Amino acid sequence: MKKNILKLALVAVAGMVLYSCSKDNESLPIEANIVQTVTADRTNLNDCFIVSDNPYNYVGEIHNEIIQTFVNEYPEGIRDLSRLALTIDDMALSNNNYRQKFGDSHKATNPQVLIDGMRDFENNFHGMIDNIDTSREVKDRLKQLIDFMLREGNSEKEPNYTNFDSELARFESGIMNSNDFNQEEKKLLLYSTSVARNSSCFWNNYYNTGNKASSQTQDGVSMKRKWWQWVIVAAADVGGTMAGTVATGISASGAAHTYTDPDKK
Known about the structure:
Elements: H1 2-9, H2 11-21, H3 57-73, H4 81-93, H5 96-102, H6 112-116, H7 126-129, H8 136-153, H9 161-176, H10 183-208, H11 229-242, H12 246-259
Helix pairs in contact: 2-11, 2-12, 3-4, 3-10, 3-12, 4-12, 8-10, 8-11, 9-10, 10-11, 11-12
């Protein structure tokens, strides 16, 4: 059962790579001016203030803004993937920061990519990452990131969030300080780490200290699962950022949130 649920939770990781990062698709856009922060009111964003020198940290911040809107309006999630994709697209285009940064390059989310992602699940989506039109070194780093998140998400004991984020920060710092990648390659990798860090913070707070805290025991350990939903949902988000497709990543987040909810098992 756990494996089947994980397939649903992580379905987007491979599918979005196939859809948006295949060799037949355009490469990632390079912004002339990099904005490190966004200016939205974050009162309701579960107090996620990621300390990072990542010039693309705004990607994860915008992600959190939109997914906060989604869980506010649809706390039970949306199981119909076509409706989910349309809903997330509408929310993204209604977000000022998203429109400013991604409006010109926005593409409607194809719900089929949320299904296609199952094809490479048993291989930790390595086959899908291999389809990205980028260097072998970048692919290896993306695999390392996904492998780490999936390993933590499948652990018997819930990961310590501080240690988890510290490992992501170490990974992110290594990318920023490396001379092995060009600008476009760094952008792909740093988009991924930005969403990994911001998303895991958001979902950790959401499930452990916010809306879903009531589903856990008093010592914070869930009675209904031995794998950790906040890590799994964050991992699904990262699949979208591999393609530089923020709206698709948010759709993956919404799908994973819906299909991994232990209250619906």
